[in-house]
Amino acid sequence: MDSTPSPSSSSPFDLVSSALGQYIPRGGAAAAAGDPTDGRQEQILGAVNLDRELRITRSNLDAPAFAELDVTTGSPFVDLLPQGDVPTVLRRLRQVLETGEAHVARVQRLRRGDGSELVVSMSILPAAAPQEGLIVSVIAMARRLHLYAAETAIGTSLDIGETAQSLAESLLAWGEVAAIDLDFAVWTGEGVTERAQGRSRLRRAALVPERAWPEGYVTLGDDLPSDASRLLSQAIRRADAPQSIVIPDREAIERVLGSPRLVRALVPGDRSAGVACIPLVLEGDPPVVLGVAEVWRRADRPFADSELLDLQELVARTSHHVDLARQHQREHTQVLALQRRLLPRSGGGTVQTASVYQPATPDSAGVGGDWVNSFPLPDGRTALVVGDVVGHGLGAAATMGQLSMEARALLSAGLAPDEVLEHLDETVTLLDDAESGLAAGYSALGSTCCIAVYDPVTHRVALSSAGHLPPILMSPDGRAGPLAVRPHPGLGAEFALREPFEVHTFVAPPGSLLALYTDGLVEDPAVPIDEGIGRLADVVSTVHPWDTLQQAARRVVSALVPTGQRDDVTLLLARMIGYRKGDTATWRLPARDDAAARARALVSALLRQWSTRDATREKVLLLVSELVTNAVRFAGGPITVRLIRSGHGLLCEVGDTGNGRPRLGRGGLLDDGGRGLHVVHRLTARWGVRWTDTGKVVWAEVAR
C-alpha cells in the first residue's frame, strides 16, 4: 500500500492511513472507506464526527476491532474516555477547534462497555467546514503499531518536559498511572556521568493521568526524597547493569520501600498495587541511566512477560529522544544565561531604563540574537544599545555576546557611535570568514545594531544605526514619532554596498522617552512596516511621566505583539533625566598662558558655592591646572572647561582641538614630558579621553 498522501486528499481516513499504511492489514483501506463486505474483519480504522459541543453526530466504529465501544449519537465524546484522561483530551479537542491545527497520532485508551479498555491511536482533525466541528479518527492498535505510533509521538519535541510527558502518555496504555523520573542533571541539561550514578537525584518530569493525587505523593516538578532516589537507582542497577524490575503487589512494595513516608511518596493510590520500573538507558560503554519510567497497575492485572518486553522496547526506543532533549536543554540554558548577562543593569543616575525580551518560542530554537544594553560611560554619559543578530540558538548567542561586549568596550574607550559600528562591521565580516573557523553552519551577515549616547549636561543624543529600524522619541509634551535616521544596509554588507555610518544628533530634554526595539515588535505580514512603526509610536505616546517604566515597557509589548508571534521581541525604554542646571558649569577660554590661572579662579569660586571640602577643592584645582596647561601646551585652539557635580564625585572635563592621545608613560623623576598625566593619575579615581568632531576631551573624576 502506498503510504504517500495525495496533496489534494482531505479525508481523515486517507490522512491517517497514508501515515501508518504499512501497519494496516490488507483490505483495511477498503473497509475504512466504508465497504461492508471487503475486508470488514480486518478493519482497524474508523472515525467519529463531533459537533462544536463535542457531542457525537455520526460514527464508523462498527468493525469487530471496536466491539463494545458505546458510541451513541448525541452522547458526549468524553463518555468514551477513562475518567483520568478527560481533562487532557478535552483540552486537545478544544485546542483543535480554536486553532484549526490537527493533533495527530495520540496514544489513547477508550472504555468498553464491559469495563475493559481499548488502546487506539487517536487523531483530532478539524472538519472541512469549521462550523461542522471535528473528526476524530481512531486506529485499533496492534502491538507493533502501538510501539511505532508511540515512538513517533515522543520524537516530535525537543523540550525535555514535553518529551517525558509524551513517553508517560504512551506508557499509560499498559497501566493506570505512568510517571517519568529523570536524573536532575538530565532535567537541567547537564551531562550524566557513570561516576555520578551512585548519588542520583531524581525529579518527576511527567505524570499521567491528570487528577488529584493523595497527600505526600510526588507530583510533577517535585524531587523524589533522597532515599527514594537512591533506592530506585540501586534497584534498576543490578549486577552493575541497568535492568527492569517488577514489584507485583502492594505487600511487596511496602516491604521493598520499608517506610510509610516512602510509600506515600511513590505509590499513587490504594488501587495501584503493582509497578514496573524501566530504566531510561543511554547506550555506551558503560551505559548511562538517564532516569526511570514507572507504570502502575491494579492488583487484578499483573504484568505479563510479553507486556514487560513491550515496555522495555518502547522505553529503549525513546531514551535517545530524552537525551536529545537534554542536549537541547543544555543549549537553551547556555543561551538564556548569556542573554540574561547582556540585559541592562542600570542606565546611571541620569537615565531611567527598562527592557523586555520575549522569545518567539520557549525553547532554545526560539532564543535568538536580539540584545539590548544600557550602561553609564566613565565620563558621565549613558550608552543605549540594541542589536539583532541573524539566526537563533547558540551560534547567534555567541555572536551576540561578542558584539555586545565589543560595543561596550569601545564606547567606554571614548569612541563615537559611528566609529563603534565601523568596528562591529569589521567583526561581523571576520566572523563570516571561513578561515576563522566560526562560519560552519552559521553566518551573522546582515545583523543590525543601533547605538545612542546621551549627554546629561547638554541633553543631546548622538545616534548611529546599522540597518536598524528608527527609534521612537517622545518629547516631554507627549508627542511621539520615529526619528529620521538614514537607512543603512547593516553589518557585514558586501564591500560595494557599504556606506559610511552617520551620526544623527538631536536634543532630548529632561522627561523625553526614547524607545529602541527590534523588528519583531513591529513586523506583521498583514500590514506595512511603516504602519507597525506608527502603531508603536502611538502606544509609546500613552506612557505617562509617572508610570513605572518597567510596567510601561511590558504594556507596550503586550499591546503590539501579535498572538502568533513569529520573531523575538526586544524593547528598551529610556527616560532622560540629566543633571540639574545648578550641578554643572561650562567655561570657554582662549588658549593663552594665563588660561590655567583663569580656570583655577572660576572653578575655585564654584566649589566654594557648592560647599566642597577643602581637601577636595585643592585636588580639583590642581587637576584643572594640569589639564588646562597640557591643552595649551600640546593642543592649542579654544579650550572648554566643564565641571559636573554627581552623586559619586566631581567630574572635570577639559576639551581642546588637538587630536593627539595623552598617554601615561614611565618617565623618570627629571623627565618633564608626561609629568602632568602622572599627577592626574594620582589625584583621580579614574580618567580617560573621548573624541569629538573638533578634537578631544580629557575627563577625570575626583571623589567628593
Explain this structure to me?
This protein has 704 residues and is of the alpha+beta class. Helix content is 32%, strand content 26%. Helix 4 runs parallel beside helix 10 and helix 5 (160-171) packs antiparallel against helix 10 (305-342).
List the helices and strands and how they pair.
Blueprint (H helix, E strand, L loop, with lengths): L11 H8 L8 H5 L12 E6 L5 E4 L26 H14 L3 E9 L5 E10 L7 E7 L2 H12 L5 H12 L5 E7 H4 L14 E7 L17 H10 L1 E2 L2 E2 L2 E3 L2 H8 L2 H7 L5 E11 L5 E11 L6 H38 L8 E8 L9 E9 L5 E11 H20 L4 H15 L16 E8 L4 E7 L5 E3 L5 E3 L21 E4 L5 E5 L11 H12 L8 H12 L8 E8 L7 E6 L5 H15 L4 H21 L4 E7 L3 E8 L18 H9 L2 E6 L4 E8 L1
Antiparallel strand pairs: 1-2, 1-5, 3-4, 4-5, 6-7, 6-12, 8-9, 10-11, 11-12, 13-22, 14-15, 15-16, 16-17, 17-20, 18-19, 18-21, 21-22, 23-24, 24-25, 25-27, 26-27
